[in-house]
Amino acid sequence: MGQPAERESGERATRRATDLQLPPGQRLQKGWPVTHYGPVPKFRPERWEFRVFGATADGGKHCWTHEEFTALPYTTVEADLHCVTKFSMVGAEWGGIPARTVVEMAPPAPDVTHVMVWAEYGFSSNLRLEDFTSDRALFATHKDGELLTAEHGFPLRLIVPHLYAWKGPKWVRGVEYMTADRRGFWEERGYHNVGDPWREQRYSYQEEPGDGPEL
Q1: Are the C-beta atoms of 85 and 106 separated by less than 8 Å?
Q2: pLDDT at position 2, please?
């Protein structure tokens, strides 16, 4: 794994935060609250496996051990995190493996349109393929140069900066390629299928035609 870059000074980060416009309905958050549903899973490296499956180009399943996955090319992305509970944490430096790297190593079939990101305890989040492969989507192992804590998703969480934070699950274990959309855990429970904070897409009743799976 590459080495985390030197983190931005607190003073500089504070100045940057005051210059930013937040998405509608959001408030600036100092620090990083812990928010999740259910217990924090125990990490067992000898049992941990990252899988890519579903509609892959070769029809097979691709797997990495924890050691193999964290040895993939490391990069950093400076990005904000917008929680649907209305707090925004700005100016964080995330380090990890780009989602595009996974797609390049385990390509999807030509007719794939969406992915389901799977995490511990069967938690899931659906994403359009173009969101998953965006320039700054990252399987994060670090924040501000330090390993994620277990409460914040160690050993792996997905960061998709242009969407609400629930679209990037903690404790990720794999990706399923899909040729049609279907809703993930929170999307089945009334959250918006897309989750764009700048359009304040919080809940499913706000969906417009084309935002959700066809019935």
Answers
A1: no
A2: 46
Q: What is the pLDDT of residue 29?
A: 84
Task: State the virtual CA torsion across 149, 154, 156, 162 in degrees, nearest 10.
Answer: -30
What global pTM score does this model have? 0.88
- Taking Cα atoms as reference points, which of 52, 53, 74, 61 lies closest to residue 1? 74
Structure tokens at 45: 């490296």
Mean pLDDT of 23-44: 86
Q: How many CA atoms lie within 13 A of 25 on its CB side?
A: 13
Which of residues 21 and 115 earns the better pLDDT score? 115
Q: Answer with the residue of higher pLDDT: 17 or 73.
A: 73
3-state secondary structure the chain: CCCCCCCCCHHHHHHHHHHCCCCCCCEECCCCCCCCCCCCCCCCCCCCEEEEEECECCCCCEEEEHHHHHCCCCEEEEEEEECCCCEEEEEEEEEEEEHHHHHHHCCECCCCCEEEEEEHHHCEEEEEHHHHCCCCCEEEEEECCEECCHHHCCCCEEECCCCCHHHCCCCEEEEEEECCCCCCCCHHHCECCCCCHHHCCCEHHHCCCCCCCCC
Distance from the first to the final alpha carbon of the chain: 43
Residue 11 is predicted with a pLDDT of 44
Q: Most confidently modeled of 2-16, 23-37, 66-80?
A: 66-80
